[in-house]
Design a protein that fits this description.
7 helices, mainly alpha, single chain, two-stranded antiparallel sheet
Length: about 170
Amino acid sequence: MNTLRFWLLTLGFDLWWTLAVWGRESVELLLVVGALLMLFFTPPERRKWVLFACALGIAMDGIWGALSLFSFSDGAGVPLWMMALWLSFSAWWLWFCSHLSLRWPWLMLLGAVSGPLAYYLGMRLDAMQLEASPWQVFSTLALGWACFLPIVSLPVLRKHQTLRSLS
């Protein structure tokens, strides 16, 4: 894949994330249809991992909400727009990760920084409110994302490892 296409698709997901977090319920139908299209265009052998990553992400948000770390502006639980964003992120991440050669420590660091940053930006866009101290919320998010990103990257990491051992 050429570099321009890689960065355009990455920028495209960033714009998709912004639309989801900024628009929330007002663009819910678009987000759900878009997320389902992303899943449809995901290679069949990767779809189960996309669904696993999506389910794990929604579960993390649900647990963090149940622990009263934060709440979404829409009310109780994980809203539909966020579920669609999780499906979109999962499809995009497994594609994105397949074009990188990051090892576990880098994935953990990337997760620990980028996950909480996304939630911080979501908070600034009024998509969620903190229910606990910022230190408690963001340190828990950092720990969760430091585990989440490497786990959902397993199929790509295994494929890269197999290719390295064959060469």
